[in-house]
Amino acid sequence: MAPVVYKKGMKYPLRALIFLILLGLFGIFCLYSVPWNTGFPLFSWFPVAVWCFMGSLSESSSIHLPKGNIQISSTEAIFCASYLIFGLIPTLFVISSASFIYLSHKTEGLKHVFNTPFRLTFFNFFHYILILWVIDILYRVLKGVPGTVVFLPSLIIAPLFFIFSCLLNSLFYKLEEGRQFWGYFRDTFVIHLPSASLLSLSSLMVALSFPKFGILALLMFALPLILSRLSFLSNPEEWE
Amino acid sequence: MRGEIETEGKITPSHSFQDFLVSFYISLPVVIISLISWRFYNSNPSAGLILFLVEFLFVYLLCRLPTGLVIILAPLFLVLLKTGLSILLGRLVHPNYLKLIFYLEINPYLSLGLYLLRKHVIKRYLEKARWPINLALILFLSSFLLTHTFTIYSMIIRGAAFPSPEYYYAIFNLLTSFSVIYLLFLLRRDSGKILAFSPRSLTFRGSEISFLFPGNQFLIVYLLLRKYTGRINCAEISRGINKEVSFCPDSVDSNFCKPSACAQYMSVYRRINEIRKKFESLGIGTIITPDNKREIYQEGWSIRLDPQVSLYENNAGNNKNNYSIIQGQMKESTKSLPINKISLFPGVFFSLLTAAVFFYELGIRASCTFSSLEPTVTLFILGILGAVLLTLPLFIRNWKFFLILFFLEFIFFQGAAIILTRTCLQTLTLFLFLKNICLFLAFFIYCFRRFPDVEKISSIKRFTDSSIFWILWSYFAALLVLRDSPDLSVLLIEEPFSPEIIFNFHDQLLLILSCLLVLDFLVYRIKILTIREESVFLNKRALEMVVPGVNLRLLKIFLSSKEKILLCRQIVKELYPEESDRCLDSCKAALCPAYQRIYKKIQELRRVLEILDLGTIKSPPKTASAKEDGWKISLSQNVYLEMDDKIR
After folding, report:
1. Which residue from B377, B382, B376, B366 is spatially nearest to B423, judged by alpha carbons?
2. Do A198 and B474 touch (CB under 8 A)?
3. What is the CATH number of domain A44-234?
4. ipTM score of complex
5. Domain spans of chain A?
């Protein structure tokens, strides 16, 4: 069955709507279960603000893959580095920043949160929250401490940010556009898995260098990370 | 316009003043060291100043050398000579001179390399290296510049006295980084494919291609390129073609204009479709139309150039010679990388060295793991096993066995690194983990050349091209962050064969080798020419738009011939069978109309093959010998031929 791209005025698929509602409810539960009452961990506001800016910048430099009708960026690596450097709560700020504050230039004009369909922003935000929640649990189970790099657990969780995001996106597009789950996953994401995994590995490097170099470690990461869209652009058929 | 160009074809003119400045710049670190040693340590600067003069003269002569093998050998000789002299001065005059090799000379020598590369490497090869140049630029920007910033930052933090030699060295290094970045930017600019247009000519990558756009097509191309940043609609094109056109209104009015009934619109629409196919086949770009076809006549068309293409308007008119690629260099440019031949000796040597260094390092640094084991025996056994596993795939010719062995050795090395260091140092574990990934990437690219299967190369390249940059970047970052870099100049004097020197040397060597192999691999682009009954396809795209009619038949005849050589009479027999009976052994080529026609067709075909980077057609040395020697088509080595699903 050919995928039907949802446009304004069309009847929204019921199962996709149920999925979004469930995702939202689960996301709110995740936010509720965050130990807010334990107080903020010790971190400086300035590096977190810089990292929030990086998240927005990365989201702004996302590229469109026409084949999968999806934007792809290196934001997951930013979240991973943020989680390993600052821990859970600051990463929520970074996720919020990347989900709501972005400005990207597309052929049809400037794109920002106010002219992006609400359902997409909703999905983006809550699916990242869900992923962070799952990864936080996994990291703790593997005896990792959020905000600190513990070698093996962090090596395991680093690529999972991207993989989980791809899986949830495939599920969402299956429900909304009627695409095949594994077919969509294979055709759209598999080719980017090696570079995304390596990108997450380099986010580990930033997390490790942060105690030594401080804010400069973030800057060291910033340039190649933003330019990482070049590596997504390696296939000319996917240029927009 | 994407980029501006100053000179075409030959990238930089040979300029003695420029060479003089470069020589002075390259020799500057010696002066800096001499003056600092004199100012802070009261050492005699005369030896350093003599070295400066010698280096200056040598580099100046090097810059003036013509292209050839000497241009590769001379810098190598210079580096070795300079290293030897620096060590000598370091031992005899002051240890500060050792900083030349490991610290101050890196950027000037990189700049010299890039300067010579830019001066001597032909533009066509640079075009192929666009992507690696971009990566090199990013890698350099994000590493060297920040390394120096970190150095200065850490000196400020720890409150180093100012002025001190460390400050001068750090500032000098930071400043010289800019020269490397500047040269990389220049190389990046040079690596663009230039599309130059004027009212009378259209050149792409130095060759005139206006003959591919006959009649009004050329005028439409000109109008589209003039409005590169915007859109151009049917009315504007019609007026551009014929200024006295009366049936198009000044502004398109949907009530007046009926595209489906307009012959002019249909003609423009058809021609633009043809232009689009030609642009796509040539790799120039494409023409964008609105999603809704009904809006085409109002909104019009726009050009989207390939990111590698730089557009340049040549207002002076037809100035073809300015853009021509030097034909004599074409032969060199079609020489591609010998992908199926590798030399075993360097591979075996490096594998053994790597296994030895790897387990030596484990023995030194992971001593806590060996508290209950006999380290020497265990490491010796593991080292032998590692060396065998690393060298064995070099001799395997079976793809599956190669993959199995490769996988096994990867697991073995990663396992050894993780298990033996896990309890001691997490940073070492991570560093060795990343180093192993980098090592195996380099190793894979090196061995991969033994399996020249186009399908495998294509599928592997699809995955690797976008990710190998991150392996290099992570390894470089690991070197910067996880390794405690000792002052090598001090260590070299005190303990020249200390483990730190060996580990550092191996780390740097691996990084350099990986970078070279990766660049080599990235430059390699596969092109598949498929010959079918109906047409010839380049990477599944029909070539009939850029190689029309007779030329396409000629190409098919060339490609189907066994020796890839065609005599004049063979071509006549295939293309003009009715004239073949006129071909005699005693014919005069210069007087034969069929020969003249074929000659022209071959010229056109050669031009298209060269523009598409597929290869060239070699003409016989003399016109008169065409009937005995014939023309030979030689394809680049990255071009694979498929005939009726049979891979050559």
Report:
1. B366
2. yes
3. 1.10.1760
4. 0.77
5. 44-234
